[in-house]
Structure formats: C-alpha cells, structure tokens
C-alpha cells in the first residue's frame, strides 16, 4: 500500500497581525482526496529543497498579482492584496514546477501565476472587459455560482465530462493573453477563460474557479481533486 502523498499548499502573505493564512477548505479538500497537506508560506525557503520533499503542489487563490510583472496597469483602482514577497516566492516555485514532473493544481490566483510565468498577461479588472451580466464574484466579496463549458478536446473534459459544470467563482481578474504552451480547457459564457492545461507537463491544470468550495457540482469537483492526488501519489512510479 502506498503512503499518502505530501501536497504543498501556498499560503497568503503575512498579514498585519503577523499571521500566514489559508482558508480551511483547501486543507479539507486535500485530506478528503487522500493527501497530506503541507502549508508553504511565502519566504526564503529554497525551492529545490521543497520540491525534493513534495509529491504535488496546489497554487492557491488570494490577492492580486502586481501588474508591473506583466506590464499591466499598476494604478488600477480595483487592485488589492498585493504582496511582493508572495509574488516572488510563487513565481520561483511555479518556474521550478513547470520543469518538473510534480503534479500542479493551480487555483484562481494560482492559474494567473501559471499564465504569467509562461509569458501571458491578465485583465486587471474583468468587469471592465465583459461587464456585469455574468458576475464572477459576489459583492462586496464572496463566491458565486455560474456555469462553465469544458472544451471536448481537453484533458479536463476527459476527467470531468464535457457537460457544463457549475463552479464556485470568486475573482475579478482573468487571463488576457495566454501563456506559451497553455491550452484553454474551459470558458464562461462571456468568454472568460476558466481553465487551462500545460500539455508538455505530466499533470498541470489551472482553474479560475474554486474547486475546494463544496456545493458547486461537488462530485465532479471531487473527481478533479482525486485525480490530482492520485497523480501525485504515483509520480515516482
């Protein structure tokens, strides 16, 4: 019997009370799918040492990425939660991951990090582009359900089926230009890119939604987590 895989979860930057934070749903999702969660606070930990010990990595959600990194609008009024420390750590981590065989599940901000590392860019505020007909987060803050359509030729549709999927959405930014090597796996009805996959990697999927939040097509979200954990468990074999 194989041991449960060790799954790294990136955390938010240190807050004004001196704490590293991460919503419990991420930990619960990893544990439910059979993994052991290991929190990865942003800082100076050597990336190679981390990857020697981890079987899989979840790039989690959170605050915005500094638009200066992708030549975006650094003065946009809707920017929030910027952290140079978190950006620097997660960019180094993601660069190492895409050149490894370690499975990667990139969620919300994590998918945006993956896209930018591969040379892509973001819309600084999605409503500026697609309007508010299809809300992608509840106001003033919180998740909101909406449907996404999976592309039938994607690895994600093989895993989850190509029927529309109801997801928990909680973001105000999204991919503008797609990074090199990424393929679009799913889109919303307003054209927002909702999932990507890195074809050259053994298992690297990014989703703009939050599959750790239970209640939105939960059995299909669980299938995503189980496949990620299973691939992490088998990465050495």
How would you describe this protein?
- The protein is of the alpha/beta class and 237 residues long.
- The chain is built from 7 helices and 11 strands.
- The strands form 2 sheets. A 9-stranded mixed sheet has the order 2-1-3-4-11-10-9-6-7, sandwiched between helices.
- It is globular.
- The two termini are 13 Å apart.
- 43% of the residues are buried.
- The model has no long low-confidence stretch (mean pLDDT 94).
Q: Which strand order does the major sheet show?
A: 2-1-3-4-11-10-9-6-7
H-E order = EHEHEHEHEHEHEEEEEH
The whole-number mean of residue pLDDT values reads 94
**Count of helix runs:** 7
Distance from N terminus to C terminus (CA atoms, Å) equals 13 Å
- Strand elements, count: 11
What characteristic shape results from the CA principal axes?
globular
Helix fraction by DSSP (H/I, runs of at least 4): 25-40%
Flag low-confidence runs.
Answer: none
Percent of residues in beta strands? 15-25%
Which secondary-structure class do the elements indicate? alpha/beta
Topology:
Blueprint: E1 6-10, H1 24-32, E2 36-40, H2 47-53, E3 56-59, H3 84-98, E4 104-107, H4 109-117, E5 122-123, H5 127-130, E6 144-150, H6 155-160, E7 165-169, E8 174-175, E9 182-188, E10 193-198, E11 204-207, H7 218-233
Parallel strand pairs: 1-2, 1-3, 3-4, 4-11
Antiparallel strand pairs: 5-8, 6-7, 6-9, 9-10, 10-11
């Amino acid at each position: 019997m194989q041991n449960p895989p060790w799954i790294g979860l990136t955390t938010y930057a240190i807050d004004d009370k001196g704490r590293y934070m991460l919503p419990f749903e991420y930990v619960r999702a990893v544990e439910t799918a059979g993994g052991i969660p290991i929190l990865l606070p942003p800082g100076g930990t050597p990336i190679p040492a981390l990857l020697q010990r981890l079987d899989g990595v979840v790039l989690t959600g959170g605050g915005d990425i500094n638009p200066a990194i992708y030549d975006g609008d650094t003065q946009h009024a809707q920017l929030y939660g910027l952290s140079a420390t978190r950006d620097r750590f997660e960019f180094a981590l993601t660069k190492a991951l895409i050149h490894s065989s370690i499975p990667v599940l990139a969620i919300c901000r994590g998918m945006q990090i993956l896209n930018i590392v591969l040379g892509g860019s973001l819309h600084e505020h999605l409503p500026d582009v697609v309007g508010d007909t299809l809300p992608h987060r509840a106001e003033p803050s919180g998740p909101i359900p909406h449907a996404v359509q999976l592309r039938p030729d994607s690895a994600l549709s093989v895993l989850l089926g190509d029927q529309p999927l109801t997801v928990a959405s909680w973001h105000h930014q999204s991919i503008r230009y797609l990074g090199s090597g990424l393929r679009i796996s799913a889109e919303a009805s307003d054209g927002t890119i909702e999932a990507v996959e890195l074809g050259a990697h053994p298992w690297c999927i990014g989703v703009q939604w939050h599959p750790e939040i239970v209640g939105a097509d939960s059995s299909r979200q669980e299938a995503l987590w189980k496949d990620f954990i299973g691939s992490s468990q088998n990465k050495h074999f």
